[in-house]
Amino acid sequence: MSTRTESGAAHAGRMPRFERRVLGGSLLVAAPGLLGALALAWWPPSETTLRWAWLVAMAAATAGLARWQYRRVVFPLYTLAGLLEALREGDYSLRGVAGGVLGDVVYDLNALAERLQQERLDFEESSHLLGKTLAALDSAVMVFDERSRLRLLNPAAQRLLDGERHKLFGLTAAELGLAGLLEGPADRVAVHAFPGRSGRFQLRHAALRAGGRGGRLLVVNDVGRVLREEERAAWQRLLRVLGHEVNNSLAPIQSMAGTLATLVAREPLPEDWREDFRGGLDLIGNRAGALARFLAGYSRLARLPPPQRVAFDLGELIGKVARLVPAAGPARLQITVEAGEPLAVVADADQLEQALINLIGNAVEAARAEVRVRWRRDGECACIEIEDDGEGPPPSDNLFVPFFTTKPGGSGIGLALARQIAEGHDGGVSLAPREDGHCGARARLWLPLTPVASPG
Fold it and tell me: HAMP domain spans which residues (predicted)?
């Protein structure tokens, strides 16, 4: 386009070449008549035959020049018409020679053709990418026109409708049994029976507009399948931890039971059989008690009641918990509570106290010399931070999985219970290495400062 601009600047103030050609040709066509009229005016022939011959000669010359001028004007326009017709038909490969009398116009048409060709290429690439994206989606995507007829669907939608693509196109939403899905809230979860699958689905629909016509977009997600996959994965993690803990108790019980059976079968009994027998029974009792406590912890985690929210001062609760926890830790350990601004929260004080006991207790067990507790306002949430100077959290993704523990004799309940309590208050818990350059871990618990309205 820069060449076109420079050319226009160079010819500023001058008549374009094509216009000069038209003007010059028109004057040349008129020249025989003008010259003949002047000749007749200054030198009129005496004979009538000569006069008529002169008029015929002027007419013939004018006709020949007019045809010549017609070809000079019309043929370049034919070229432009051909280029425009190719553009209208979508053929962007034709190019005109930009050096003719209509060079500027041909140059612009060539540039337009190149731009349209590039835009078509970009459109085809985008359409191909869109098609690949829709084909890879697990969500069913369907587009209906203004008459609610199906115009587009991806493979997931085809499987959901259980039909061949060419037979599904053109059917109305009512014929497909989807008319009710295009009505009601734009985003909802409902149970529906499709030809290909039944279950619980997330339904989203929205209005579309293309070419001055309306349409509807429908997206269907199989919520039930996602929930089943997540549930299966959760059960696998839980059973893996449960199996590990139960085996840790049953293996020594089974081994000691076999040892005692062998001891009883010996004849005669050794002199210290009573002591060995008593020790074996104590071991079995201890392991059975540990297993019972483990199952009691599971029951406690599974039966956590809904929070009973009341208003209280967060700083007072943290100070109370900080005074309770050190009794279980080493005498040299110091718990420092950094006073923050007064924050009134609406939560279940007993449950929040239990969550903080677990988090601060874990910090006390991991710390070398000091544990710091602070609280602050973080937007619309109250945030509690607990830092220790220990070795930091273990590199594992199972820290909040119930019954998972890296501590000898640990139950694996504390972090899971703290997270469950926080999430019951629409908050959360995290555990990560400290970010201030010191060794240790930082546990964060946050919950909203304003009460959350209960459903219904």
Answer: 71-121
Going by pLDDT thresholds of 50, 70 and 90, the confidence category of residue 397 is low
What is the residue-wise DSSP string for 261-296?
HHHHHSSSPPTTHHHHHHHHHHHHHHHHHHHHHHHH
* Nearest residue to 64 via CA among 31, 17, 41, 102: 31
Written as six digits, the tokens of 87 are 């553009």
Question: Is it the case that residue 5 has pLDDT exceeding 50?
Answer: no
| Four-CA torsion 347, 353, 356, 360, nearest 10 degrees | 160
Inter-CA distances, 151 with 95, 143, 165, 206, 287, Å: 37, 6, 10, 15, 67
Q: CATH homologous superfamily of domain 137-225?
A: PAS domain (3.30.450.20)
Q: What is the mean pLDDT of residues 337-349?
A: 90
How long a stretch of residues is the chain? 456
Confidence check: pLDDT of 456 > 50: no
Query: What value does the mean pLDDT take over residues 321-341?
Result: 72
In angstroms, rounded to a whole number, what is the distance separating the alpha carbons of residues 213 and 388? 64
Token pair belonging to 225 = 């399948």
Interacting residues of 432 by C-beta distance below 8 A, sequence separation 6+: 393, 441, 442, 444
In sequence order, the 6+-apart residues with CB closer than 8 A to the CB of 270 are 263, 276
Mean pLDDT confidence for 444-454: 73
> Residue 364: CA atoms inside 13 Å, Cβ hemisphere, count?
22
Burial 390-413 (b: 16+ CB within 10 A, else e): bebbeeeebbbbbbbbeeeeebbb
Q: Do 318 and 384 contact (CB within 8 A), yes or no?
A: yes
Higher pLDDT pick, 46 / 277 = 277
Gap between the Cα atoms of 435 and 417, Å rounded: 25
| pLDDT tens digits for range 18-42 | 666 666 667 776 777 777 667 666 7
Contact 290, 252 (CB under 8 A): no
- Rounded to the nearest angstrom, the gap between the alpha carbon of residue 261 and the centroid of all alpha carbons in its chain is 63
| SS3 label, residue 171 | coil
**E strand intervals along 148-289:** 150-153, 187-193, 198-210, 213-222
Cα–Cα distance, 435 to 380 (Å, whole number): 23
Burial (Cβ within 10 Å: 0-12, 13-18, ≥19) of residue 312: middle
Query: Taking the domain 310-448, which CATH number applies?
Result: 3.30.565.10
Distance CA 227, CA 277 (A): 51
Structural tokens at position 104:
């500027």
Please state, as a whole number, how many other Cβ atoms lie within 10 Å of the Cβ of residue 161.
24
